[in-house]
Amino acid sequence: MSRFMTDSLKALAPYTPGEQPRERKYIKLNTNESPFPPSPKAIAAANEAAKELELYPALDGGRLRAKIAEVIGVDESSVAVTNGSDEALNFCFKAFCSKSSPAAFADITYGFYSVFAGLNGVSYELIPLKDDFTLDPNDYIGIGKNIFIANPNAPTGLSIGLSDIEKIAKSNPDNIVLIDEAYVDFGGESAVKLLPRCPNLIVTQTFSKSRSLAGARIGFAAASPEIIEDIYRVIYSTNPYNLSRTSIAAGIGALEDEEYTRCNCREIVETREKTARALRALGFRVLDSSTNFLFASSPKVGGKELYERLKAEGILIRHFDAPRISDFVRITVGSQSDMQALVGAIENILELK
Ligand code: PMP
After folding, report:
1. How many Å lie between the centroid of ligand 1 and the Cα of residue 193?
2. Which of 46, 142, 171, 185 is 20–30 Å from 298 (CA)?
3. What is the number of the ligand 1 atom nearest to the C-alpha of 31?
């Protein structure tokens, strides 16, 4: 660290993203990317847009904003388009939370929440999940804090119902309640339909998972027009051109091919369930997943060791060296052949035990 770093950022521990190795080709099951390429419509649209890269992109996400609004069934004024949903999350911490207006989120959830809180000088409370890793909605009723819930949650894969979200939002009317739906297309139910009834609700989604566009960095927030205006205040104070021309075009192309997305999600869910059965047959505890990943632990091999042994075999998964979950690994659901290779490699590792 240089001696020029500000005091407020010296103590910040940045988020640790999953490895993106360059040195060797792995079966990559560590960052919840899609095993499928983007829709051909997304690729064609991005190629076409590349011909005009000498020009700045549209503001406000341009036609992508309108297209997202159409697909999720809200007015365009209720959507802010962001550079990945991480940007939406960061800007919500910046816009709506502070030292005196703290945040609250689960002890086991998306690791970026505490980083964004630190980056933006926001104090926060960690609310422990129950022993079985489920979230107790009662812990969030009337707490008077800005609430961030990943639903389905990461890395557990578990989800809560919309009636609980509505109760949480209504009992904290003077705070925002943000539902991070990065994985909603794999089995969750979107809280977008609660927006007309819950003026303090914000829903974020991403194109990185179900729409195979992690490399394009597209996300969005849906909320009341007033909240969206606040988010755009932050966007316009940071980087008004927050999405490239090619990303905007790819996003529109993807939304014009919803059947492709649905079909891929169906296949991922099938592969997920098949892999969960295979791991359970090998003695693993596998949490019920509504996502494109599995969270699992084995009584025979620790999480860190399994991660290391699989890496040596050319398969990358994710291990979090964190309290309560260090026995677990998070495994992205890849293609059927990726998962066959994974289960085969795990069988070999367990046999040698
Ligand atoms: N929320 C959760 C729960 C995630 O796991 C991720 C992916 N790491 C994100 C948000 C951010 O995804 P992106 O910025 O690619 O939209």
Report:
1. 21
2. 185
3. 8
Report all structural domains of the chain as residue ranges with CATH numbers, in order of start: 10-36+259-351 (3.90.1150.10), 40-256 (3.40.640.10)
C-alpha 215 to ligand 1 mean position (Å): 12
Of 68, 43, 59, residue with least CA distance to 244: 59
The whole model's pTM is what? 0.97
Alpha carbon nearest to ligand 1 atom 2, residue: 182
Above 70 in pLDDT, residue 76?
yes
pLDDT, tens digit (0-9, with 9 covering 90-100), for 242-291: 999 999 999 999 999 999 999 999 999 999 999 999 999 999 999 999 99
Q: Is the C-beta atom of 36 inside 6 A of ligand 1?
A: no
Mean pLDDT across the chain: 97
Asked if residue 203 has its Cβ within 6 Å of ligand 1, the reply is: no
Nearest to 101 by CA among 125, 123, 118, 126: 123
Atom of ligand 1 nearest to the CA of 154: 3
Ligand 1 contact via 159 beta carbon (within 6 Å): no
Ligand 1 atom with least separation from CA of 206: 16
pLDDT of residue 351: 87
214 Cβ inside 6 Å of ligand 1: yes
